[in-house]
């Protein structure tokens, strides 16, 4: 039963990551890392496919080995945070726009402190 839940979560993560490839506010690589985590516990064959993927494999391996995020990935994440904050400032009333601002500050600080691959 547990294996099936991990398998389902892995496919859901792949789906969200795929959507994120087309929507700028939804991250792609974190969902692929999550799906690799889930597939490691449910399907070694699917995990190997992700690790061998031309685009996502290097990011997943860097994260697993050193917890590293590339400088390009950091810049992309911070740009997405900035875009989200700008949208919140434009469309959300006070105090609701503070939620994405705080999330961006916390998440952005954490991302920037990760080692680079």
Automatic annotation (TrEMBL):
Keyword set, alphabetical order: Membrane, Transmembrane, Transmembrane helix
A Pfam cross-reference name: DUF454
Instruction: Please tell me whether the keyword Transmembrane helix is annotated for this protein.
Output: yes
- Which terms in the GO cellular component ontology are assigned? plasma membrane
The residue ranges crossing the membrane are 6-39, 97-113
Q: Which InterPro entries match?
A: DUF454 (IPR007401)
What stretch or stretches form a coiled coil here?
none
Q: What is this protein called?
A: Inner membrane protein ybaN
Q: What is the lineage of its organism?
A: Bacteria, Pseudomonadati, Pseudomonadota, Alphaproteobacteria, Sphingomonadales
